Amino acid sequence: PQGPGPGQRGSGSRTAWIIAAVFGVLVLVVGVVGAAIALSGSGSDPGTTVAGSSTSGPSTSAGSSPGSGTFESIASSGDSTCAVRAAALYCWGGNERGTLGDGTTTDRPRPVAITGISDVSAVSMGGLGTTCAISSGDLYCWGYGVGQPGQNVPLPTKVAGLSRVTAVSVGLTICAISDGDAYCWRNNANGQVGNGSTGSVDVPTRVAGLSNVTAVSTSHTTSCAIAGGSAYCWGNNREGQIGDGTTIDRLTPTRVLGLDAPTSISASLYSTCAVAGSGGVFCWGQNSSGQLGDGTEQDRRTPARIDVRGATEVSTAAYGACAAAGGSAYCWGSRSDQPDKSPDRVNGLSGVTEVTTGSANVCAVAGDEMYCWGLNGKGQLGNGTTTTSSEPQPVRFPA
């Protein structure tokens, strides 16, 4: 998709934008006060996006009300979205590869409850349509490549060899925390499993050298973890996304330089972001589209602090990122010729505690409700339509 060209931005003050990254392709939609913008991609590309005025808050469809409740975890990838709400798992959107886990390959424009697992505490989505969730301390995965090579499994399938799982992250690789140790498996072409090799790994394999692991994140070719109060990354490092001051690939965990007591970390295609103990957000790696948010387009081989404070969570996409900070959502980056190089506050949301950047939309938990916005061709916004929206839409959970 192309970024906004002459005459497409309209007039007025820029107030919010939308990230949508599809396997390395990002569309950025910028909300403009008093003006409408249209960003068009090619027909088969995941995105023709239309942005309207961003002066109003999240819109609500007549005759319908958003579901509310406690959200423990949210995730989005490709054209699919999931959420853990009151310990139950709901998924919606694209389902071609069984990504939703409802036993079908039927797209769902509204959340459907996923049966067969209960007491769910976390969910993650990624790769080419794989979803994993933690249920009563056990890990279940489904969708793309969960069965035999090339086989998609549309129902939750227990992962053997792991117990007391507390966190999971899905990319082309899968990483999880079990009993305080990090385990990774599946694609390992760039050493992102962290076992010192680049051969494919079919079963969960402990990442040596890490203990007291509290967070994991894996993307297409790079994995990261927070362990013992420090951040570590490994795998592909050609853009400096490992954060060790080099561009040398690392087959085992390598400490990220210059981060003080990190609490959240998110790896994407060629960049990484983290939240430090102070609530500051730091990003490093590729910055050709302003995805590091430091006001430049200069690549960084070590973490650079950006202008977001009081952050609790950060989520990265291929060419942008968002953070939850001070009750608001902030986003930055672009695949256009006029990138947003610094964080912008998303208009109309308050009480934000969680945010996730998917491949075609962004979602956030604000108060006791969940909102999504961006592309919606498969119903991934969860509002019962397939209409793209530049404004946060309340997700319609079943009663």
From TrEMBL:
Organism: Gordonia lacunae
Keyword annotations of the record: Kinase, Membrane, Repeat, Serine/threonine-protein kinase, Transferase, Transmembrane, Transmembrane helix
Region (Disordered): 43-72
One Pfam family cited in the UniProt record for this chain: RCC1
GO MF: protein serine/threonine kinase activity
Full protein name: Serine/threonine protein kinase
InterPro entries: RCC1/BLIP-II, Reg_chr_condens, Ub_ligase/GEF_domain
Transmembrane segments: 16-39
